[in-house]
């Protein structure tokens, strides 16, 4: 970071000069970017990153990804429409990259989905190397989990989630692309850290929302998931909703 006071905060930007509504021959008005813009704070990093695309392999991957992105939209008279769900995007992108052998790192809790995905991918001509999070059958106490910290209780055997095994199996399985399906938070981090092949994500684990973490985020300004925001505005919202409910009953 350039300084403790100023650091990139694209998430709070209102200018969006990096994606301006201008003609193809015009230049983005970068001088009106906010002071916290990474393009202002780190021009050398931006230029170094941009030169990485000069590598043929990187350029080609980025080009195919952008074509895939393009094909997910359709301009119609009624406006822009989206076309395909993520799972279909995955199939299309893997085909564009001429991948044949895909790796699937999945959570045991999503083994049904892993089988469904395997069936779909195999039906499209891919080979699927799959490895479950419990592979290795190592007990949780190996990493310092106490019996009372086991999900199934202190008496039962409990295998640890083992993202390192998943990563190494897929590394040695010579897969073209590893797909993550429902790995837990933290275990997914380790998987990404140890995986040496390109990785993409089909779904992350969210036990409460059918693996759709944004569902809770979308409700963060409602009484239902207002607890996500650690300030009084939320409690106020919840109190208000309770008051309204009380006055109705
Ligand atoms: S890159 Fe700059 S202009 Fe673009 S969103 Fe971030 S802060 Fe805003």
In short:
The chain is an alpha/beta fold and 249 residues long. 38% of the residues lie in helices and 13% in strands.
What's the arrangement of secondary structure elements?
Layout: H1 38-41, H2 43-52, H3 56-71, E1 73-76, E2 79-82, H4 86-96, E3 101-106, H5 111-123, E4 127-132, H6 163-172, E5 177-183, H7 187-194, E6 199-204, H8 214-218, H9 232-248
Parallel strand pairs: 3-4, 3-5, 5-6
Antiparallel strand pairs: 1-2
Helix pairs in contact: 6-7
The chain binds iron/sulfur cluster.
Iron/sulfur cluster binds at residues 10, 13, 15-18, 33-34, 37-39.
Question: Which descriptors would you attach to this protein?
Answer:
Rossmann fold; 3 domains; globular; 249 residues
Describe this entry's structure for a reader.
With 249 residues, the chain is an alpha/beta fold. α6 runs parallel beside α7 (187-194). The protein has nine helices and six strands, in the order αααββαβαβαβαβαα. A four-stranded parallel β-sheet has the order 4-3-5-6, with helices on both faces. It has a two-stranded antiparallel sheet with strand order 1-2. It has helices at 38-41, 43-52, 56-71, 86-96, 111-123, 163-172, 187-194, 214-218, 232-248; strands spanning 73-76, 79-82, 101-106, 127-132, 177-183, 199-204. It is globular. The protein folds into three domains: 35-83, no CATH class; 85-202, Diphthamide synthesis DPH1/DPH2 domain 1 (Rossmann fold); 213-244, no CATH class. Iron/sulfur cluster binds at residues 10, 13, 15-18, 33-34, 37-39.
């Amino acid at each position: 970071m350039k300084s403790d006071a100023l650091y990139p905060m694209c998430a709070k930007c209102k200018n969006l000069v990096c994606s301006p509504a201008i003609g193809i021959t015009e230049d983005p008005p970068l001088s009106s970017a906010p002071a916290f813009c990474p393009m202002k704070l780190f021009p050398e990093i931006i230029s170094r990153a941009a030169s990485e695309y000069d590598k043929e392999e990187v350029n080609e991957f980025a080009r195919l990804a952008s074509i895939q992105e393009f094909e997910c939209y359709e301009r119609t008279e009624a406006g822009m429409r989206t076309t395909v769900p993520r799972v279909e995007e995955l199939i299309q992108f893997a085909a564009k990259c001429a991948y044949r052998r895909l790796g699937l790192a999945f959570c045991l809790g999503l083994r049904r989905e892993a089988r469904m995905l395997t069936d779909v991918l195999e039906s499209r001509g891919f080979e699927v190397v799959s490895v479950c999070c419990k592979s290795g059958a190592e007990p949780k106490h190996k990493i310092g989990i106490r019996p009372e910290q086991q999900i199934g209780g202190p008496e039962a055997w409990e295998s640890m989630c083992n993202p390192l095994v998943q990563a190494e199996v897929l590394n040695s399985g010579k897969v073209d692309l590893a797909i993550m399906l429902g790995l837990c938070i933290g275990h997914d981090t380790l998987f990404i850290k140890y995986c040496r092949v390109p990785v993409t994500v089909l779904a992350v684990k969210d036990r409460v929302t059918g693996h759709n973490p944004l569902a809770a985020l979308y409700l963060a300004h409602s009484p239902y998931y207002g607890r996500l925001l650690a300030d009084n505005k939320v409690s106020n919202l919840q109190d208000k909703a309770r008051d309204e409910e009380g006055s109705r009953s």
